[in-house]
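Supplementary Methods, section 5.1.

A reviewer requested that the exact input to the structure prediction be made available. We therefore reproduce it here, unchanged from the version used in the analyses.
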Amino acid sequence: MRSDRRQLMLAGLALAAGPGRAAPALRIVSEEAPPFNYTENGTPMGLCTELVQAVLKELQLHVPIETLPWARAYDVAQHSSHVLIYSIARTDQREHLFKWVGLLTQADYSLFALASRGLKLNQLSDALQLQTATVNADVAEQFLEERGFVKGRHLQSGSRNELNLEKLRQRRVDLWITADVMARHLARQAGQDSQRLLVRALPLPELNVSFYMAFGQATPDDQVELFRRGLEAIKRNGQYEQIRRKWQGSSRDAAEPLAS
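The structure derived from this sequence is encoded token-by-token as follows.
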């Protein structure tokens, strides 16, 4: 990665080639989606954030991470060049809209309800009679829309999952669709015992999501390849596994089961 070819690629892409120097041609956008990526006291954090930061360090680049509402981050990355987005789910619908750098992590999704309601679904179509909280333009919302759910009718679309959890707690919605690990994390962040607060109304094994780093189609292939090599490098040198274990290996987010 520290070869003359790498330096030439950086120069040709108008990216800074020296350690600690800014790369104004490159933007990195993300969203508030703990524990994958989020901000705490203005500082970007999370499993996927640390992986992206490790890649930047490998490439000797210093680029700030912008936290935006997901729909905006998605639009900017899709329609602009030199914009890296993470953590973005790789789906058939998105496959040809982005240039995929590489896998960061995976997550299982479910429809959640308040444990106190005892709500259980036999199949996804049962949720058509209920109100479900979603995040605008995210993979879970797109999943439901592809199956006949309509925003404003079946879905209450918002900007952040923290707000969706609050909607569920206040019974403004019946269901909340999100990653299992995110449901646990946000419940604890809100000072709640996730086992007592939430129940899986319906696990969604068909929505097993792989989260990636990606660029829009307008980004040159050389830049995509540069970041792909950076990600491969941190996987080879052990940083990827070290970061993953930090966030998942000993984390209650991974270890603590949620009731079904």
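The chain has two domains: 4-106+209-255, 112-208. These observations are discussed further in the main text.
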